[in-house]
């Protein structure tokens, strides 16, 4: 999967989070929430190893995700925008007074569903390109995470490598289904062609036999 972890927070208070694999991204994300400068709306990205933490802060609500660096910027920020809209629409002003993880039971399922969608469905990126949205993402600079976290305080990011295999497995299954479908249609066409050929042969044989039987009568 391209997006491996995500959360929604008010300030440094995490309201909901979801992880697609075994990782300590949650602890690193909390450090980032504590260290992000200022309270203004912002779009920032921080890299650590080959993973990038993308952060979108709007009206005091922060949405964060950790993605593989191959995911680029458009897809992760499209995901963050989607999650922000869904969260605000679902909870409204309750966000202002919610306790830590107050929405986790319900909204973590939404995070999981959308993480999978933006990671594996090609329509996720195609739709945003058609809409022409996320133009502001082009100006988002990807900085090293050391910009916000002191080297001594920064945790080493640990990610279960089977997470990368999950995305490969999903794509392999889609290709396998497509291959089986192609083979099935090919077999159907061959079967139909064989049936037609047999019918033609039977017709020719019957025509020949009937012609052989009627020929003496004609000679009389």
From TrEMBL:
Q: Report the leader peptide range.
A: 1-16
A Pfam family that the UniProt record links to this protein: Longin
Question: Which keywords fit this entry according to its UniProt record?
Answer: Coiled coil, Membrane, Protein transport, Signal, Transmembrane, Transmembrane helix, Transport, Vacuole
The record's Gene Ontology cellular component field reads: vacuolar membrane
According to the record, the segments passing through the membrane are 190-215
GO biological process terms held by the UniProt record: protein transport; vesicle-mediated transport
Read off the InterPro entries from this record.
Longin-like_dom_sf (IPR011012), Longin_dom (IPR010908), Synaptobrevin-like (IPR001388), Synaptobrevin-like_transport (IPR051097), V_SNARE_CC (IPR042855)
**Location of the V-SNARE coiled-coil homology domain:** 126-186
Q: What PANTHER family does the database record attribute to this sequence?
A: SNARE PROTEINS, VESICLE-ASSOCIATED MEMBRANE PROTEIN 711-RELATED
Q: What is the protein's known function?
A: Involved in the targeting and/or fusion of transport vesicles to their target membrane.
Q: Protein name, please?
A: Longin domain-containing protein
Give the species this sequence originates from: Citrus clementina
Lineage per the UniProt record: Eukaryota, Viridiplantae, Streptophyta, Embryophyta, Tracheophyta
């Amino acid at each position: 999967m391209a997006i491996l972890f995500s959360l929604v927070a008010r300030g440094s208070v995490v309201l909901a989070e979801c992880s697609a694999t075994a990782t300590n991204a949650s602890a690193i994300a909390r450090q980032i929430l504590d260290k992000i400068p200022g309270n203004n709306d912002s779009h920032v990205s921080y890299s650590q190893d080959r993973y990038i933490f993308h952060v979108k802060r709007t009206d005091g609500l922060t949405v964060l995700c950790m993605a593989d660096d191959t995911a680029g910027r458009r897809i992760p920020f499209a995901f963050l925008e989607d999650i922000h809209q869904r969260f605000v629409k679902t909870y409204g002003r309750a966000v202002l007074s919610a306790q830590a993880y107050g929405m986790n039971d319900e909204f973590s399922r939404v995070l999981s569903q959308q993480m999978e969608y933006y990671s594996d469905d090609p329509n996720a990126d195609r739709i945003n390109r058609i809409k022409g949205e996320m133009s502001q993402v082009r100006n988002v600079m990807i900085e090293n995470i050391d910009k916000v976290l002191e080297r001594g305080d920064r945790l080493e990011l640990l990610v279960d490598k089977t997470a990368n295999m999950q995305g490969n497995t999903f794509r392999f299954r889609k290709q396998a289904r497509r291959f089986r479908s192609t083979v099935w249609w090919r077999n159907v066409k061959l079967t139909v062609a064989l049936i037609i050929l047999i019918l033609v042969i039977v017709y020719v044989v019957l025509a020949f036999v009937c012609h052989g039987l009627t020929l003496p009568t004609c000679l009389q």
